[in-house]
Amino acid sequence: MITVLIRARRGPEALAVTLSALVPAVAAGLVADAVILTDKQDDAVDRVADASGATLTVSSSWADGAKVARHEWLLLLDDGDIPQEGWIRVLERFVGLGGHRAGLGRLRRHGHGIHALIDAMKTLLRRRGPRAGDLVHRRILLDGARVGAPVRLPAAIARDPVFG
Question: Among 48, 122, 132, 158, which lies 20 to 30 A Cα-Cα from 115?
Fold first, then answer.
């Protein structure tokens, strides 16, 4: 089982889209709980978190989310992210077949137009550390351990076009 960490930056509607996309993984027994990370207290985001049974943490740090997570494996998402078909099986397999050795698996990010190009360029310029769309072992976030290149997972994640 895994914990999903979701950074809420685009508002309660984007958060609800991502949470609803996780329902099949909850039913399949992959996702056990969620932690919502937000920069500031927001009553609407708080209501969505409460209604979904998620834990709300006022912080945008993945490490702070890892501190309150209940499981060793963490799926990092931004609000508005939607895992694409087949992702549940891929994550179950990665965790079950020794993904702990690598500690970091990365879902492909699908996008369209100029926003996808900008996201791709940002990814190239960023350090290798965990980012939204990664499945990461909790120890990496808590210990600040440097990781090598992530294992590319054969599943994708997209952002709902309404939320850019």
Answer: 48
Measured distance CA(141)–CA(156) in Å, rounded: 22
Question: In the beta sheet, which residues pair with residue 105?
Answer: 135, 151
Rounded mean pLDDT of the chain?
Answer: 89
Share of the chain above pLDDT 90, in %: 72
Q: Of 162, 158, 138, give the one whose Cα is nearest residue 81.
A: 158
Domain borders along the chain are: 2-163
SS (H, E, C) 19-82: HHHCHHHHHCCCEEEEEEEECCCCHHHHHHHHHHCCEEEECCCHHHHHHHCCCCEEEEEECCEE
Compute CA 32 distance to the chain's CA centroid, rounded to the nearest angstrom: 13
Confidence band, pLDDT 50/70/90 cuts, at residue 9: very high
Choosing among 3.40.50.150, 3.40.50.720, 3.10.290.10, 3.90.550.10, the CATH entry for 2-163 is 3.90.550.10
Q: Which two tokens stand for residue 158?
A: 């997209």
